[in-house]
Amino acid sequence: MEWVKANNLACPLDGLPLEGIERQLRCANGHSFDLARQGYVNLLPVQNKKSREPGDSTAMIEARRRFLDAGFYLPIAQQVNALALQYLPDGDVCVVDAGCGEGYYLNQLSRALAESGRTANLIGLDIAKPAIIAATRRNKQITWLVASNSNPAIFPGTVDFILCMFGFPVYPAFAAMLKPGGRLLLVDAAPDHLLELREIIYPEVRKSPPPVLDRALQAGFELIDSQALRYQTPGLERAQIADLLVMTPHLYRATHAGKEAAAQLASIRLTVDVVCRILEKR
After folding, report:
1. How far is residue 54 from each of residues 49, 117, 130, 148, 180, measured CA to CA in Å?
2. Which of 102, 117, 243, 257 could pair covalently with 67 via S-S, beta carbons 3.0-4.6 A apart?
3. At what angle do helices 238-247 and 58-69 cross, to 10 degrees?
4. Which domains does the chain have, with CATH numbers?
């Protein structure tokens, strides 16, 4: 199964192990999933879709790719890499990026692992097929899947570490994927994240704390570390401001007047304010 690096994939229909046969993944019950020409596998059954094209749109994905490649969130990736290297067990490991988008953060982690001499089975999954197609262009050594966080199509108890970046964690499914003692890294916006832009596009700014962890604790996780990251970006130019708005929910929540004001900005420096929390499966 050289074209799919991961060896712990499960059939999304019956949970049986998937094996590579020619250019397909198949389970013992005969369910088969083709390798797309771009190098990913679609493990999101049509009956599990809530819309024809679930997840982020192509416009959102391309805006995020341009913005991230410009380096504005590189310190976040570096913090994620440092935490992953600190909390990963020794030896060959399996890391899943649940809601990987167009693959920026998992690709950055792949480089950090290689530089440190670590070997890893890396899996990126996202419900949006255009995001996974974009991710395949970043790194051919990563297994990229169209799949959902609630049904990730990964065999239980085979994952050492999960990334969930500004995403939608499904704690019972994450706990099922992880080995005992496996870790989950959550990265979420803190109260002042992108504050300067929010003050322009909203009549009133609400400084919301990161999501509470009640459901994580109920699913058997324990918080073992929490680290804040706060910095100022270099100046964003008009096109980069537009990309940032498109790639976030802010474009769709902002008032018309707020969007007009943002469109008039020639440049802006922003506060990046995030919290990185490590949870361990008890």
Report:
1. 7, 37, 10, 10, 32
2. 243
3. 130
4. 19-281 (3.40.50.150)
